[in-house]
Amino acid sequence: MSKYSLVIHGGAGTIVKEDMTPELELAYTEGLSEALDAGFAVLKEGGSAVNAIKAAIVLLEDNLLFNAGRGSVFTKKGIQEMDAAIMDGSNLAAGAVTGVRNVRNPIELATEVMRNSNHVFLSGKGTTEFAIKQGVKLEADDYFFSQFRYDQWKAIRDSDTYSLDHTHQRLEELMKDRKFGTVGAVACDMHGNIAGATSTGGMTNKKYGRIGDSPVIGAGTYANNKTCAISCTGHGEMFIRSVAAYDVSALMEYKGLSLQEAMDEVVNKKLVSMHGEGGMIGVDAQGNTAMILNSAGMYRGVRDSDGRYEVKMYK
């Protein structure tokens, strides 16, 4: 039996203690802990890495604090358009969706794409048709409404500005705030198989059907038993241009770097040189884990079969 482990994130960016109330800090800690516990319970019972990360992300998608699923931000049109991806490192199977509307848990839909569609990537209206066919739960628009997300959007909806997510500051400070709201998870199960997944509501006030790195296999999400499973959060355009998630795998496979070394190379050297801000979480098939960021903070947590249990926010 291999060491098994789970790592999750809930977004990165300008997350600093002075902006956080004790109540909000507790709420984030509890939300991350609940997701960690749900995913780890699957691993502890001998479940697969894929099912573990799905269980963790479902709870994060259901939590209004995180920009995914129910907590997704408003687009320029005043609606939610969600993206998600999942990848199984044991066979390189993957599923991704973008521009999703009214799907309660986009990560469940991405998993259905991986398992039951003969495709990898679905978009727009086609995702809804497939969700209905697969019996994935849908919700009305009001399920996805939250007042603080609406206030974020209202502050900038008449401009061409977009915002990089979670903010709990005064609205006049909105545009100084840089937070990349994405949720993700990676896991290694007791059979030595690994998997990674990411889910997001994207950018507040985004237009033109913008898609970030989260659902793009190799950019925001990647998994391969030979190397690693990665989930990213940050300024998506830079993560796409640098093929960030796959680059970690390539550094491990072709240069022989460890998980920690490869992630550090991508996050703190390559992305920094491109002015790409954010972070990523990773796991390898030996159950080793890493959480690396070049921003002021990242909502994150890790739990493994050796007894490690950590939830962190700040750098």
UniProtKB/TrEMBL annotation:
Signal sequence region: none
Q: What is this protein called?
A: Isoaspartyl peptidase/L-asparaginase
